[in-house]
Design brief:
Blueprint: H1 3-35, H2 50-81, H3 86-98, H4 102-134, H5 142-173, H6 178-201, E1 208-210, H7 215-227, E2 234-237, E3 248-251, E4 258-262, H8 263-268, H9 271-286, H10 289-312, H11 315-319, H12 330-345, H13 349-370, H14 373-386, H15 395-401, H16 407-419
Parallel strand pairs: 2-4
Antiparallel strand pairs: 1-2, 3-4
Helix pairs in contact: 1-2, 1-15, 2-4, 3-4, 4-5, 5-6, 6-10, 7-9, 9-13, 9-14, 10-12, 13-16, 14-16
């Protein structure tokens, strides 16, 4: 068996295993949630009505069923690009039109993104205008949905085109260790983007207004002072333009850090509960979770770029994925790698989820030390209720996918901190 045939076999087996695992986990989630639909978990029986619990179960199952369709479509599209020869055909067509160079690379990448977006579009429309609307969450108009897609596409093009051109230039011009230079450039880009996002990108989608004076602002400023957190402002975001879901977060880097509250969150929570939610978010900052996650991102980026450096010069990489290339091609290598790397990286998913849940527990503990734990418990219960988050996820599905601990475990941990 040749190297290309072996790599092809490994890819197909892994794609089948990953796709089957994702479908199986989704089916497990649906069956588990439905089995527990008829009764509120004991820990929540005095806080959550049965009707709300059943709404959360139905919402979770509807979204999971939609995701099963997306998983299937993604796998079929990847097979079409590789085994079906779509990528090879597009590459040949654009080479004939433009020759090797930036226009070829940009056209090839743009066509791949466009095809992927068209495949995803029906799922996005159904999720927003059918599922979210059915459960009373959607507030997006068709016009706003289209404008969001246009803005996202323009931002992707404006940011992605220079990145692609710079990456292919490095791959062609900087020798065998080009991937080290690319890694440094990628780190610098992410840090700059993190600093610029709150001021220049987020306002393209939402309106941010200063948190008005009053009890909540006084509480928030006092909490920030206790936690030693300096920000460039406290803002309310018009999340209600698109959804009734509520949230709070801080964003930015260095002096551009902002504290942001969804207006839907402020409508639902009392000031002490909002303060407790913010204390949790500040816990991520004080425990350096953001820096740790950035560090992990950079480590994984270095590993993946090193792998790309190896694959780029291996004819079996192209031939094993359905392309007839015998000579290295930087643009094709980069695009092909980005297409298939999610399949090879899927085993990292439960590890990343476990790492994230650990951070959530640490942020909860920090919040309980700087605000009453009961206020955070009350806030979380309201958010579970308002966001129709299931209280009974399948344990295995949760272990693989959930970035936050299951509700029962999280509340029990906070209750223990409350009585400690």
């Amino acid at each position: 068996m040749t190297h290309s045939a072996l790599f092809n076999l490994i890819f197909l087996l892994l794609l089948a295993a990953v796709t089957a695992s994702r479908l199986w986990l989704g089916i497990r989630q649906i069956h588990h949630v439905q089995r527990h639909r008829s009764q509120v978990p004991p820990a929540f029986q005095e806080r959550i009505a049965l009707s709300d619990h059943q709404k959360a179960a139905d919402y979770t199952c509807a979204r999971t069923k939609l995701r099963l369709g997306q998983v299937t479509a993604e796998a079929l599209l990847l097979l079409a690009f590789t085994q079906g020869g779509w990528l090879g055909a597009l590459n040949g067509a654009f080479l004939s039109l433009f020759g090797a160079g930036n226009l070829h690379a940009l056209s090839l990448a743009g066509s791949i993104l466009l095809i992927g977006a068209l495949v995803d579009l029906p799922f996005g429309l159904y999720g927003t205008f059918v599922i979210e609307a059915r459960f009373g969450f959607n507030r997006v108009t068709p016009k706003l949905y289209a404008l969001d897609l246009l803005r996202e596409s323009l931002i992707t093009a404006l940011l992605g085109a220079p990145i692609l051109i710079a990456a292919t230039w490095m791959m062609d011009s900087l020798g065998a260790f080009w991937w080290l230079w690319a890694w440094g450039a990628w780190m610098a880009f992410n840090i700059v983007l993190l600093a610029l996002y709150p001021t220049f990108i987020a306002p393209l989608f939402n309106r941010f207004t200063p948190l008005p004076p009053g009890d909540l602002r006084d509480r928030v400023e006092a909490l920030l002072a206790r936690c030693g957190f300096r920000s460039s402002g406290l803002f309310v975001m018009d999340g209600s333009r698109r959804s009734s879901h509520g949230n709070a977060y801080f964003t930015g880097f260095g002096r551009s850090k902002r504290v942001v509250f969804f207006d839907t969150l402020l409508e639902r929570l009392e000031p002490p509960e909002t303060e407790a939610v913010l204390a949790h978010e500040l816990g991520h900052y004080r425990r350096r979770h953001v820096m740790q996650r950035i560090g992990m991102l950079f480590v994984l980026s270095l590993v993946f770029l090193a792998l790309l450096g190896w694959f780029k010069n291996a004819p079996w990489f192209y031939q094993g994925l359905g392309l007839g290339l015998s000579a290295p091609d930087s643009a094709v290598a980069l695009i092909l790698f980005m297409l298939v790397i999610p399949v090879f990286a899927f085993p990292l998913q439960p590890v990343m989820s476990l790492y994230s849940r650990k951070h959530e527990f640490e942020a909860d503990a920090y919040a309980a030390a700087h605000a009453p734990a009961r206020d955070l418990v009350n806030a979380l219960v309201k958010l579970y209720q308002d966001n129709a988050a299931t209280l009974t996820p399948d344990p295995l599905h949760s272990a693989v996918y959930d970035s936050h601990p299951p509700a029962a475990i999280r509340i029990a941990r906070l209750e223990s901190l409350r009585t400690a």
